[in-house]
Amino acid sequence: MTQTRTTRLERGRSALGPALELVHTGQAPTRAVLTAELGVTRATAGAVAAELESLGLITVDAHPTAPVGTQGRPSHRLAVNPEGPVVLAAQVHSDGYRAALVGLGGHIVATAPGCGAIDADPAQVLGEVVTTGAELLRTAGRRCVGAGLAVPSAVAEPEGTALNPLHLAWEAGAPVRDIFRACLADAGIPGPSGAPPVTGFAGNDLNVAALAEHRHGAGRGARHLLVVGTGHHGVGGALVLDGRLHTGSSGLALEVGHLTVDPGGRPCHCGSRGCLDAETDPAALFDAAGRSAGPENSPLHQASAMVREEYDTDPAVRRAAGTLIDRLGLGLAGLVNILNPDRIVLAGLHRALVEADGDRLRGVVADRSLWGRSGGVPVIPSSLDHSSLVGAAELAWQPVLDDPLGALGG
Q1: Topology alike, domains 86-207+388-407 and 220-383
Q2: Looking at domain 220-383, what is its CATH homologous superfamily?
Q3: Residue 138: how many CB atoms within 10 A of its CB?
Q4: What average pLDDT does this structure show over 98-127?
Q5: Distance (Å, whole) CA 283 – CA 277
């Protein structure tokens, strides 16, 4: 590295993390955009980009092809390195788990499902998850810089305990983050410096899904993003404020599943009745349609497929979906009145509902909320198929985004 470049990099070293995040989230496709976003000189932006490239995190195309009809020399193009390091991401739900390798940019490199009943011992389940992930890493031959886990429970911070794994047989308060880290250590998965163990992180599945949608999906560009969706069972919510996931004082914010939307409605596992959790999840849809979920796939996948494939042709499905849409709209209207988000993204079964009849859903929200009547709250479907996996990966990527040199041993 020349003395000039060294001097420029020292000036811009604090910009390495912000620069990487801009490329990671697709906001800086060229060096010119990176220069403007960081507010630095072109030379400093060039040194920062070159350092990120030397770390194997991004690629820099110094000779891009200019679009036909344009004049002048096109700016260097920046992109995440498709052959760069990855993180191990995993999601556990009531019907099984899935492990994946995820690169920068939210790109899933490899994935492997593990289906069947989830053991009552979280150590047994997470051990299987990590074993599956370790095999993916061995097959891919990629450098692993972290590991993230998404679970269907509020995860208390800073303890890393699953406080309410209501749809799993796990004991409330299970130390899932510590168990996950112990499993990673037992598997001997090396960290960024080459020495095991890699560091593991854990979070609520919908919280991390919101983070993924904000950085890589339908929530990109929103300042205050509300995400509501169904898991394989139940309903959750999450809020991203000014680009950061809002988890409250101890990780328990936005437990929206227990908003009451029908006081005389279905019993909820929390002990109340008519909660959003009980009125708008896959089980509620099957019940309203007079159907039962089959054994061949998860209830979430079956319910979503039923709406997408039969909403226009089966009156019973259309009525059932309409009932859920109306209940969901009431819940969203209450959240809009309290939180005043600038965008709402719906995931899981709720994604299928808004795709089937978004006008009806948006109409309920507008009629029942002060801010909704202004017409300024878009309600749209999520755009990521594995948002919780990508979000779990974001937990693991965050230390690298915060300090690339420090996290990677530079």
Answers
A1: yes
A2: ATPase, nucleotide binding domain (3.30.420.40)
A3: 10
A4: 90
A5: 10
Residue from 71, 188, 82 nearest 137 by CA: 188
Task: Provide the H-helix boundaries in 87-148.
Answer: 122-140
pLDDT, tens digit, for every residue of 330-370? Answer: 999 999 999 989 999 999 999 999 999 999 999 999 999 88
CATH code reported for the domain at 3-80: 1.10.10.10
Which residues, 6+ apart, have CB-to-CB distance to 351 below 8 Å? 229, 304, 381, 382
Q: What is the pTM of this model?
A: 0.90
Residues 361 and 328 sit within 8 Å (Cβ to Cβ): yes
Torsion over CA of 402, 405, 409 and 410, rounded to 10 degrees? Answer: 180
Min mean pLDDT across 52-56, 138-142, 291-295, 401-405 is at 291-295
Distance of CA 126 to the CA centre of its chain: 19
Domain ranges of the chain: 3-80, 86-207+388-407, 220-383
* Residue 202 φ/ψ, nearest 5 degrees: -140, 145
Pairing of strands 379-381, 96-102: unpaired
